[in-house]
Amino acid sequence: MKKGMIVALLFIVAGISFIGYGLFEKISMDRKTEAALREAVGITKGDVPSRVNPEEKERPVKPEDFAPGIGEVVGVLEIPRLEAKLPIVEGTDPDELEKGVGHFKGASFPGEPGQIVFSGHRDTVFLRLGELEIGDRFFVKMPYGDYMYEIYDSKIVDEDDRTVITLQKEKEDLLLTTCYPFTLTGAAPERYILYAKPVKIR
Question: Number of helices (H) and strands (E), helices first, in the chain?
């Protein structure tokens, strides 16, 4: 066999291996997200006790009664325009973001004053986040109630910009954040942010 053919075969094998590994990771992450979503739907309906804190039998009735641990499934994010229903998990480290949308630890929760921050991967749960427009509405379902938000602004910032997350406690404001550009493979240099304000559910 000629040297050129061997090199070509090696490239093909390497390519197939790379694609196979990527598919395996995608399937594994999808399964984690699906499992977390089932748990989140059950928790928000009151049908399933907390997996992380199973001894807690009573559902919280207001945000200040809610104190989930890192990795705990806490709610559901529904985005009608994208026909998406996503689990919300406490924490934004890689382990949490593999399961769904991460709630930034220390940020406010829906229904209380302050900055609420949800983050997600641009190639999984927030794959179509760029399709949302100002005026679009979405819902957040928590164990203690359901909330609706309307997008009023968007921004693209440098990945190192720490001024976006202020954790202010004056007025309720929700941020959806993900890496940017959406089509870039590998580490992204920027962050895409959508700002939303609470709207009363009729």
Answer: 2, 8
